[in-house]
Amino acid sequence: MDKPAMQTRCFTGWHMTGILVAFFAVVIAVNMVMATIAVRSFGGTVVDNSYVESQKFNLYLAQARAQDRLGRTDRVTLDAGRHVRLVLKDGAGVAISGARVAAVAEHPLGRAPDIALRFDEAAPGAYASDRALPAGRWQVRITVDHGAQHLLREVM
């Protein structure tokens, strides 16, 4: 018995067109998905004008050195209830009592509104925020005023 003749199919221009269209459709679809994710995940600018902010860099360094010369130490923690805790001590290790402490919690890249925090002195030199932070990552800028001394602390 004879085998039936095999029919071969030719690769035509329509096949190549279909392959090219499918390839570019996949590339465009992936790019659209990635662009959408990028736009939705970036909440804004870190600073409004990076050039102007860079001009203040030496001022920030001078302020940091002045604070280091005071010898004060601080310890910032987040308790189980997500309240910010701050312990302040002077250069001799004595608790700094009677300071005015305030803070602003900012979500990185502005995905959530800022939260103003007020601190109450729970024990000598130990301060606790009046409200808890929501879940997630927050950058906290703490301002401490104690007499003529001013301390600015940034905590992640």
TrEMBL record:
It comes from the Bacteria. InterPro entries: FixH, FixH_proteobacterial. This is FixH family protein.
